[in-house]
Amino acid sequence: MITVEKLSRRYGDVTVVDDVSFEVRPGRTTGFVGANGAGKTTTMRMIMGVLSASAGEVRWKGEPITADVRRSFGYMPEERGLYPRMNLVDQLVYFARLHGLDPRDARSRVDELLEHFDLTDRGSDLLDTLSLGNQQRVQIAASLVHRPTALVLDEPFSGLDPLAVDSMVDLLQQEAADLPLLFSSHQLDLVERLCDDLVILAGGRVVAAGPVDELRDRGAVRYRVVMDGADAAWLRDLRGVRTLDVDGEEALVELDGLKPAELTRAAFERGPVVEVARMHQPLSDIFRESVR
Ligand SMILES: Nc1ncnc2c1ncn2[C@@H]1O[C@H](COP(=O)(O)OP(=O)(O)OP(=O)(O)O)[C@@H](O)[C@H]1O
């Protein structure tokens, strides 16, 4: 487990990361979200030791993190860092060797990853001849080449189409299922789909953190009512309900005194019903409310 404990970073008088604490647990995917400039990259750089902290510390399995432990992590930096004019095999072997794999092990690991990433036939191609999606796959492969103990990925999915995202997610789930995985992203739908835990940063501070399910449950419970061929506007006059939106046969409501079963009964009394469904609060709402 990676523990970030009261981490701060100042530039002159400006504090860009302010007393940030959270945990990244093994076997769990932790999403790191926040508006542009919230401090995500700065925090990740401090976790990786690329940038020193002004205060606070990073721990690994409860102990202060060391350079050796950091070397064992897989890191995908925001500025990337592969060599555009080097072929895939040579550069992945190079990274594996930098991490201490012997030549034979490095080569077999690279072959394994290229196969896994469906890039075997591109092994001798230069990186910059690959599509953006394939270059991102190589970036991920580079972060996995030394069989890391944890993964810290700065916007690994940016610029990818939905199918490329799905295939990257599959690969990560196969290769890194048991590892602590922290990744930053602006794609909230993706974060919602992938993450077990969430850390929301605003202005350098953690404004919400915890399991995604718990964060969702903290918000108001909403119900979607869909009538069959009848206007749903009657919900506006129902006592014990706050109507958030009505669109023809559909309405979104919050219960304000009424019980769920009473809402369902009231709907059936008004006419044919397609559904009365409890809605999870979307992550985008949690995000907006947290950073407000
Ligand atoms: N070397 C630096 N000197 C001064 N300020 C800096 C420096 N590096 C970063 N900052 C500032 O720190 C703040 C946090 O930046 P950071 O890149 O960590 O945010 P972020 O959440 O990763 O943003 P984005 O989503 O846009 O990548 C920003 O206001 C940025 O301008």
TrEMBL record:
Matches recorded under PROSITE patterns: ABC_TRANSPORTER_1, ABC_TRANSPORTER_2
Entry-linked InterPro entries: AAA+_ATPase, ABC_transporter-like_ATP-bd, ABC_transporter-like_CS, DrrA1/2-like_C, P-loop_NTPase
SUPFAM superfamilies: P-loop containing nucleoside triphosphate hydrolases
Single GO MF descriptor: ATP hydrolysis activity
UniProt KW GTP-binding keyword: no
Keyword entries, A-Z: ATP-binding, Nucleotide-binding, Transport
Transmembrane segments: none
Domain ABC transporter: 2-228
SMART domains for the chain: AAA
Family in the record: Belongs to the ABC transporter superfamily.
Protein name per UniProt: ABC transporter ATP-binding protein
Organism: Aeromicrobium erythreum
